[in-house]
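pinning this so it doesn't scroll away 📌
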Amino acid sequence: MRGAFDRTVLRLPLLGELVRAVETARFSRTLASLVDSGVPLVTALGIARRVIANRHMADAVGRVAEEVRDGGGLTRPLAASGVFPPLALSFLRTGEETARLAFMLGQLADTLERDVRNTTQRLIAVMTPAVTIFLGLTVAGIIACIMSAILGVNDLALQ
């Protein structure tokens, strides 16, 4: 059930992209640290998989780890999973081809974290006026109901 919910979240237009970027950045930062420390890639994938909160993405990384264990590269199975953003695949492909995977994973995490921060700031900038208007309308509705009740009581007293 959790996997189905997480898969649905990833399909949502704006929220899905944001969740995908956050999870990919967290995964990339962890994998970069592990690979840079000399942990074998298959083991590092297994460990980095645990930092992904989205079950659907974590399962995809598990399948990727199995393919890497069988001798495949990292980028092709990640691309086949369809859960990571194209930017991440580009960074990983470059890292694999240049044998600087840890460095490129760190750069990917930096880039995605910056994008998430900018997107979050834009969402807050848009949501602030919307929430203010909504609360204003709610307060106006409550005041109108109270005034209507007071005027109704006055009309009863005059009759």
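📌 and the second one:
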Amino acid sequence: MRRWMMVLLVAGMGLVSGQVARADEAATTRPTTAPATAPGQAKLPHLEVDVKKRQVRVECQALNVEMPLEFFCVVKGTNEHESVLRSQVKPSQLHLALLMIGLKPGTPVHYDNATDKWYAPQGPPLHIWIEYQKDGKTVRYPAYRCMRNVKTKKEMPPLTWIFTGSRIMEDGKYAADVTGYLVSVVNFDLTVIDIPEIASSANETLEWEYNPKLVPKTGTRVTMILEPADHVEKDGK
């Protein structure tokens, strides 16, 4: 593992340990009050990590964009015009959260001069869900169902994302912190989470738009839930 990633992992596990210690202390001093953060859980700005469940929950807002999609989620104030969700979470902290639930980043999409060929991104598979309140009830859907084909209007077929991790730039910055790329639906080497096959970002090849049947109105609070693909959940209806 690269040194930078090791630092993130150590810091993350230290954060979890600290949260557990504070929760235990709170239980001792105030036995009738539940701790704000349970053992094995941690909070970072705009996200929560449950190490035991291997689950990351990210605070987001819905978007109803008219443009074809290049992203499922971006940082607020960046490429919102081509994304289903926006969030104020910092990409490097999302990367850290995925390390904390035991995932190791793979390899972003890349071009090899020797073979004159593009290679698809690789990494551990992820399931992504959205959750929000509708008519007083909590509804939950797989993220891929929140997108539909631009021409046929049919829902996107099942999709498993991968944790590629973004790149470290020459100035030492985590690239996704600069671009705001969180979850892509076409390939970007600077995104945290990508799709596992080659998909161009050229405008003429974009094929997905948001699904108004499932995505709530712009500004609605939505939780984006990320889990390893081996974590079984039921499709929300």
